[in-house]
Amino acid sequence: MTTESYKNLTPLQLSQAADAEINYVRGLGSTSNLLLASGNLGAFEALLYTIKSGQSGVPVYEVVHNVKTRYCGQSGILLRLKAMRDVGIFEERPGKKRSQVCLAASEQILDELAPLLLERQGWGK
What we know:
Elements: H1 11-28, H2 32-38, H3 41-53, E1 58-59, H4 60-66, H5 74-86, E2 90-94, E3 101-105, H6 107-120
Antiparallel strand pairs: 1-3, 2-3
Helix pairs in contact: 1-6
C-alpha cells in the first residue's frame, strides 16, 4: 500500500486496522516467551526467519546474516538468540558440519505465536 492509498480508506477502516494491530501487539505480550521474542524487532525477525525455514533448523550464522531490520547489530542478535535458546524458544539441531549449530523454533513458541500470526493474516478465529 502506498502512502497515498491509505487516503482512500474510510475512518472506520483505518480504525479497524489500528485495532487489529493493537490486538496483535498485545498478543505478543501475552506470554513470557512471546514477550522475550518480540522485545527486540531484530530478534523477532530472527525467530520468524527460523519458522519460515522449517523444523529441520537453520544455521545460526544464516539467521544472523538474514536479519535486515536495523534495531540492533549482529552481536546483539547473537545475544538475544542465546537468551531465547536458554529459555527454550529455540531448539538446537545438528548442522551439516560437526561444528555447525542450527536453530528451529520450539513447539511451545509455535503453539503461542502461530495463532497470532494466523489471526493477523485473517486465517484465524
